[in-house]
Structures are given as structure tokens and as C-alpha cells.
Amino acid sequence: MYNNYSMNQLMLDIPTAYEPEENHPAYQINQLVESLDFTDEYTTGRYPYHPRLLLKLVLFAYTRGIRYGRMIERFADENKVAM
Fold first, then answer.
1. Which of 3, 7, 42, 81 has minimal Cβ neighbours within 10 Å of its Cβ?
2. pTM of the predicted structure, to 2 decimals
């Protein structure tokens, strides 16, 4: 299985922390994905990233017109909201 993942966990507030406004597409995608049920009954092994994180990144990249894996990776490295 994967590590336990929660967007509501306590974190240290560092100057690079960023939260988009409520009307930003990233905020809406976050609300949508967090409302989904992610119970994995048939998985084996351990994911390096939680499926919610990857789904959020892919959906946000699609809203920006990015459709390919390597371009999504570059997008996630360069875009503050995608981080």
C-alpha cells in the first residue's frame, strides 16, 4: 500500500507555501479529488505517490492543455501551483 495521505495534516509554514484562491481551477480540482473515495481493495505493493496526488496533477495539467507525461513532469517542476 501507499503512505497515508492527508491534505489536512499539520505542516510547518514556510515562505514558499502557496494556496490558490477559491476561484482558481487548482482549488476546485483539490475539492473534487478530496471528495472521492480512494479505497484500494486489489492493489499489491506500495505506490511511490498517492493516487490522489497524481490525479490532481494530471487533471490540473489537462486544464492547462498539457497531455504528455514528460511535459506534465516539467510542468510540475516549474509551476508553483502544480507543486
1. 42
2. 0.69
